[in-house]
Known about the structure:
The chain is α/β, with parallel strands linked by helices. Helices cover 36% and strands 14% of the residues. It has 14 helices and 11 strands. It has helices spanning 2-10, 22-37, 79-86, 135-142, 159-165, 199-209, 253-268, 284-299, 317-328, 331-343, 349-370, 396-401, 407-412, 441-451; strands spanning 17-20, 48-52, 90-95, 148-153, 168-171, 191-196, 239-243, 272-276, 376-380, 416-423, 429-436. It has an 11-stranded mixed beta sheet, with helices on both faces. Helix 6 runs antiparallel to helix 14 and helix 8 (284-299) packs across helix 10 (331-343). The chain is globular, with a radius of gyration of 21 Å. The protein binds glutamine. Residues 101-104, 133, 153-157, 185, 292, 403 line the site of glutamine.
Amino acid sequence: TAAHVKVMENTRHLNAYITETPDVAMKQAAESDARYAAGKNGALDGIPLGIKDLFCTNGIRTTAASKILGNFVPHYESTVTTKLLNDGAVFMGKLNLDEFAMGSSNTTSAFGNVISPWKRNNGDNADLVPGGSSGGSSAAVAARSCMGATGTDTGGSIRQPASFCGIAGIKPTYGRCSRWGVVAFASSLDQPGVFARNTEDCAILLKSVAGHDPKDATSANKPVPDFVAALGKSVKGMKVGIPREYAVEGMPAEIQKLWDEGKAYLKDAGAEIVDVSLPHTKYSLATYYIIAPAECSSNLARYDGVRYGMRAEGKDLREVYENTRAQGFGEEVRRRIMIGTYVLSAGYYDAYYTKAQKIRRLISEDFLNAYKECDVLLTPTAPSAAFAIGENEDDPIKMYLNDVFTVPASLAGMPGMSVPAGLSGDGLPLGLQIIGKPWDEETVLNVSQVIE
Ligand code: GLN
């Protein structure tokens, strides 16, 4: 832990942490030493982890990277972090993210953007984004200031930053990990998950955080398999589906090449590669960018300057609400609240929201139909390597396009994982995505380990 604290200090320029908690970490490490000495160590005893600052941590400031929660100190601990603590983990601090997890580059944080520890090898020395929204998580793990981190994935926020930073990250099936104590963005999509440097560590962390929680109504009452014991199986005879609609127009050649290499590699390892169709893929982004803002506008209605966090001045209650929200939310969050309010408004509800819900169902059915022909799907994680900070910034639509491969599995609630699989022409990490059947994280992890 002391060594990781040093790395955390030496990598401060990356801005991966919003709140560093070295004292907490050292105290937890000492407690873990004592347990170890008494022969009572837990599965994660002494393991330094970073926590995305969207998970409420008892007595430790939890900001969601928003000004509106800038001084919010919860007096409860999220279920996911409680489970990690029960297994003996050590918390290095709270990790930066896009404000309320809305973004793909960690540039919407009220606490400044995160810089990826990676540089292009072309000598341009540009500061690159770590991906988002869990950009602090991916940067911190890649920079070695923690051995693993929590994340949340609503439309790709674990998988895409893992891909950009050359680490592994898994978003389990919706309902596998409790959302209790996680600041809500879009509740029907939000799913906690984990990052680590490799698949096995992801399996160990996932085993710790998964499981039914009566405090989250959408948490599934399913037994948690031993994800670690499931590793190491051969992919011989496994059917790996290649969704043809993911070969999107304008896909960079190096991404196509990575995908082809992944297919060839799994084939050599004994898997059968099958061509499958997810016909409604092209509607995924439009559907996601209606449903996610709709749920965001409803979830974020609670920040009124009265119940949580910051409060602005105003001559009456209405003005307090308005000023608090105008000053407390950043531009992207305000944009989403406006889109969400619009698509939920009386005149447009059916045209946008109801329609999006119907298409969401079709997208889910696409996956279930594809799984009649294959066990798992293989796709690129993102359509590009990490881009420079500031790129894509003036055009929200261009930023949203970065989610093209991750959003469908989110809408369908399927488990998905990104595993480092190659390098771009500029020497940046690229990930492949493995999408599994509902509740079949074991196969996802297994295929990931074969590729890594
Ligand atoms: N990039 C997507 C968005 O901006 C996904 C974010 C997430 O998964 N939290 O909504």
